[in-house]
Fold this protein.
Amino acid sequence: MIFGSFDPLKGDMFQVLDPDGKLVAEDPGLDPVLMKDLYRWMLYGRLADEKAVKLQRQGRMGTYAPGKGQEASQVGPALAMGDYDWLFPSFRELTTYMIRGYPLEYNLLYFMGDVRSNQVPEGTKSLPIFVPVATQVPIAAGAAWALKKKGSGSVVVCYMGDGATSEGDFHEGLNFAGVFRVPALFISQNNQWAISVPRKKQTLSRTIAQKSLSYGIPGVLVDGNDVLAMYIAAREGIERARNGEGPFFIEAFTYRRMMHTTADDPGRYRTPEEEAEWDLKDPLRRFRAYLEGRGIWTPEWQKQLEADAEEMIKKAVEKAESLGPQEPEDLFRHMYEEMTPALVEQLEYLKFSLANREIEEEADEIKGGFP
Amino acid sequence: MNMVQAINSALKVEMERDPSVVVLGEDVGLNGGVFRATEGLQELLGEDRVMDTPLAESGIVGFSIGAALMGMRPVAEIQFMGFLWPAIDQLASHAGRLRNRTQGRFSVPMVVRFPYGGGVRALEHHAESYEATLAHIPGLKVVIPSTPYDAKGLLISSIRDPDPVIFMEPKKLYRAGKEEVPEGEYTEPIGKAKVLREGDDITLVGWGSLVPRLLKAARLIEDKGISAEVIDVRTISPYDEGTVHDSLEKTGRMLVAQEAHRNLGFASEIAARAQEKMMDVMEAPILRLTGFDVPFPFYRMENWAMPDIDRIIKGIREVLTW
């Protein structure tokens, strides 16, 4: 039990494996099948994320927010969630999505600028990506409250970054979650950077975890690159929430190994030395070392996983890229349950203007100076 | 019933009918709301149906969105429109967008209701009319009643609506008068304007607190042989352009009155749409009577900032003699 054992005000951090994969806490005694899953999903997530960056670089996808380096803080909680638990994500949780049954092709499609990516499949208990930072926090609190009121037994897991904890909605949302004792686990992935602003400039708080204490919510600082620690901490938070003990907060101490998005250049604000230092704390590297020591990881298994991932990713890319275009109706039909007269008129106008072009679309581009 | 009683009655009827309807906001529980719109509801339905929340507008609206996503029908109260701004992010970024951005997978059936407008000698920040800001946000509906009967019928419709509805209550009219309002349930349609008075010479258009003034002005000029048609828009989003344009077809002249600031107010939208579609029947430019582009004044100057009957009559003369 980590609740009460790690004081965020003192900077205590819960860790099971050190960066070399050595046990620094009691062996949690997890089932090897589960441990293989933890590793498998981290690897799948890593490879899918790398592929997404490649697609962007090849011009096959728009701006993408890579999650490389944050796999442990996504896989641990995702595998600790039950079937009926809900995910309220931020925008860097590709790996969490994959585990929660949100098809990979949807995530690629999102960054390919296709709104159908947000049409979460029925049965997948997740909201789509939340872009405006921290706005998902009060929404997650309200959703968790409703789920409790309905007696569903479900828990909401809500992700955010470190920068999000400076937003008003973070504080309002956590406060509501506390006052109404909602069944929710809030996870702040502190990846040290909010685009170019380092964690130190975000808050004078010693830890982000301690912020939850202001709202009467227990908070724990966890090594976010240690998948065992993240799994155990999330499992405890989810269990507490499910048992009616109210919300729980985790600061996952991790690192954004890549750029904020593919449109960003980290070379402008951080050093290669810092990046190299964090490379050594990589979540896959350390868990692989641990599993190898336990005789669970083998080079053959790794090869098999990589082949499986490649196949899965290839299929997802194919599906994403083969989806046909949408109709003008799709722009309007989901504004309200019933289309308003004004929208009907706007749709007719769009259809008319598309069907009766006098100037070709290419001629409309303003390039190489003003006409 | 007066308008506050009618609103209270609508909430009661809907909460008794549908257990997923919950009321939340600042001071709505034990205190019954600062204007007593939720009076007696907590006692009747319990603390988990009528919830006092922390003092945080974005929190209230965000929390309501989350609850609506999970099948509840929250009716959130914001104490005054002047304090709505922190919640605009939640309304614009999520409430109005979720159905569209998930292509119909999720929807947000909720109501955010609050008093708006001046004329009650309120403190600074307690008398704003920013309805155009809300009508500008796609995906929201904006309903503004002007009578107790409509307030109840429209609020019930708003609660049953599958999409997010902003329900703006003209606080000047909360206790301005009583009319016959049924105790039980009934609905008035969202998106339908109402012709309150028929006339042939000019169309007077308004909503909320300006409606009684337009009606009174219409009566005053009747003696002078001028017949004015008065339309209560009731819903500014979606706006019932058909009813207004039908009237304009008959009268050829129109005056639109609003309490809100002049620049880009909803009166401008009404005038713009009319000139795009009705130019051939128009006999005079459309006149907007509005508040000014200044913050709503401290109450010793508040009467200067709202179109009154004198200005309405002068405006009518201006349109008729153009």
